[in-house]
Specification:
It is a single chain. Helix 10 packs across helix 13. The chain is α+β, with helices and mostly antiparallel strands and about 475 residues long. Strand 13, helix 1 and strand 14 form a beta-alpha-beta unit. The chain has 13 helices and 24 strands. The strands form 6 sheets. Strands 17, 18, 19, 20, 21, 22 and 23 form a 7-stranded mixed β-sheet that branches. Strands 14-13-15-24-16 form a 5-stranded mixed β-sheet, sandwiched between helices. Strands 2, 3, 4 and 5 form a 4-stranded antiparallel β-sheet that branches. Mean pLDDT is about 80; it is low at about 1-25, about 30-45 and about 50-135.
């Protein structure tokens, strides 16, 4: 696949790319940052046209803001109301020696040169560099055939959907011209994504926490009703520093699990449903049981669980007074911060013996919340908790290797495009902890897909 690229020294609009996908050609206009050579805002993409139509005669095809005009001596990409970028003499053979480097775009801040990229290497030529010296780097991977895929995100407004949208755009930019991805929401608590990937109904899902997912391979614990799903594989682990914790209204005077057993308060605890589909609810109930507080014990005290599906629903029940305590994850969110700092909730530290029991039974790990994470009396010291970290990008082992490789390449090499969407939030309070580190992304709690493993090894992220 040949791609026209631009090199320069600052940001500009109206850059054109020409893609040749097997037997079709397609053109694109986008805004770019010349310093990093990254696309910022896609502007328009034209329809795909068979190579057999060009460059004979004078034919053209257009998108919303872009026109490609073929002639005997080459092709011009016209960005409407902007400029024309002459490219090369032919489309079927595009040697650098025959490329015209003329451009009608000049400014004091961005002097650019249009260059060509062969499929094996990417050559960047800067018009401002001495003698237009060129450097060569490995080319981006691509897939010529068009693909239709189904991704499973979250309920619709959370981080899984954002990640799926980012990955969709990066992948489809490098796949066949009719490639498309449908991003589907879930209604339950996470199980349906894994179930649909395992059955082949979907090609990719995102799931959390990472610690829970190895049991899906063996059909243990939460996954027992479905049985083993041994063909699940991962493309990457995406970092999210999260914890599961119980916090109680200060009016009860409770500061520990020992206090709970001594006082036996009639607490209404807001949490997620342990309904066989909800990962949050399953972990929450196991944490309480490890501290000797089963549903039956809580009810014997006159208490109850106030059950919903999503974290913010449980937090809202606590905020408006429908509950006396909250047992949830997503501790980095503003919802938790408001409860801890404005409503003065008291965090209940997890007992070491209870966490050790969960480690022994499930392999789950202890964690903590640093002192001062919240401006709260209850957080002047470190709070022990249960780890609930990391998102896994999950596929099936029979996903074609080139698709898995390209998806993984996008996850790692284009990670800056998702990091920037969270950089208005400090890293420890971001629902996606940044920066993403490739060496850690290469070590998910599920086995890597062979295509993903090949990418990590080729790029030195995995031994």
């Amino acid at each position: 696949m040949w791609i026209l690229r631009v090199a320069g020294t600052s940001r500009q609009r109206g850059v054109g790319s020409v893609f040749i996908w097997g037997k079709e050609v397609q053109a694109e206009a986008f805004e770019t940052d010349c310093r990093s050579r990254s696309r910022i805002v896609p502007q328009s993409r034209s329809p795909a046209v068979p190579l057999s139509r060009c460059p004979t005669n004078r034919e053209a095809f257009s998108g919303n803001n872009i026109t490609c005009h073929f002639a005997e001596d080459g092709l011009s990409v016209l960005l409407r109301e902007r400029t024309t970028y002459p490219t090369c003499r032919t489309l079927t053979s595009l040697p650098l020696s025959k490329l015209s480097s003329r451009t009608q775009h000049h400014s004091a801040s961005c002097h650019t040169t249009i260059i060509a990229q062969p499929p094996q290497t990417e050559t960047h030529v800067s018009a401002s560099s001495p003698a237009n010296m060129a450097t060569t780097t490995p080319a981006e991977p691509s897939i010529e055939r068009s693909l239709s895929m189904k991704f499973i995100g979250d309920w619709g407004q959370a981080n899984f959907h954002r990640i799926c949208s980012w990955l969709t755009q990066e992948f489809c930019d490098r796949a066949g011209p009719r490639s498309q991805v449908g991003i589907y929401n879930m209604r339950g608590g996470g199980m349906e994504g894994l179930e649909q990937v395992y059955s082949g109904e979907a090609q990719l899902c995102i799931a959390t926490p990472a610690m829970l997912l190895p049991s899906a391979l063996t059909g243990e614990g939460l996954f027992a009703p479905l049985g083993p799903m041994p063909s699940l594989r991962a493309l990457a682990a995406l970092p999210q520093r999260d914890r599961m914790m119980l916090a109680i209204h200060p009016k009860f005077g409770i500061h520990s699990y020992a206090d709970l057993h001594r006082v036996k308060p009639a607490l209404r605890i807001a949490t997620s449903s342990d309904d066989g589909t909800n990962f949050i609810g399953y972990v929450a109930m196991r944490l309480m049981e490890a501290h000797g507080i089963t549903k039956e014990v809580l009810e014997s005290w006159g208490g109850s669980y106030v059950l919903t599906t999503r974290p913010e629903q449980a937090i809202e029940n606590m905020r408006v007074g429908n509950a006396d305590a909250v047992l949830q994850e997503a501790i980095m969110t503003p919802w938790w911060r408001q409860l801890m700092e404005e409503h003065k909730l008291v965090p209940i530290p997890a007992q070491a013996v209870a966490i050790a029991r969960l480690t022994s039974q499930h392999g789950w790990q202890p964690a903590s919340i640093r002192a001062g994470f919240w401006n709260s009396e209850g957080n002047k010291e470190e709070i022990s908790a249960l780890d609930f970290s990391d998102f896994l990008v999950v596929v099936r082992d029979d996903l074609p290797d080139d698709v898995a490789y390209l998806l993984t390449w996008c996850l790692v090499e284009q990670r800056g495009a998702i990091e920037v969407q969270y950089k208005h939030i400090e890293p420890e309070r971001s629902p996606l902890t940044y920066p993403l580190e490739p060496a850690k992304m290469a070590k998910p709690s599920l086995p890597l897909h062979p295509g993903a493993e090949r990418y990590y090894k080729e790029h030195g992220h995995l031994a």
